[in-house]
Amino acid sequence: xxxxxxxxxxxxxxxxxxxxxxxxxxxxxxxxxxxxxxxxxxxxxxxxxxxxxxxxxxxxxxxxxxxxxxxxxxxxxxxxxxxxxxxxxxxxxxxxxxxxxxxxxxxxxxxxxxxxxxxxxxxxxxxxxxxxxxxxxxxxxxxxxxxxxxxxxxxxxxxxxxxxxxxxxxxxxxxxxxxxxxxx
Length: 184
Known about the structure:
Shape: globular
Helix content: 25-40%
């Protein structure tokens, strides 16, 4: 879902806010100090191997640093968005227990990453920081260029099941980042 979601979300965001700049950084690359003055940082839990990878990325993204080109101090993001997976809070229930076991504990690792973001936000004293965690199902397969299911549900926590269409996930992410302060 992540590989398809990012371009779809970028398209929607640039359509809504024409001058917005979207920067994509792979987790294996060096994260920019201070997030390059980003207002929002989106982290895909599927892109990190463990909690320490997320902590290292957050440490770099949330620093205030001097920008060499302008001589100004950078502003860290004010919102962190974590894109995660359904089932991270239900690893003791089927089918997620099996998925977690077969996947080498991947759901438990993703839950640790979610908790790392929450802890970072709660411990941050100097600059207010908000977070949003979006949990999507597996990528909904398309037939003939159309989604096989157009239904959509949004609920707090980790209570839903099923797959998620890329278009739906992109619209949800756009709302969480740009239009719905209550999503923070």
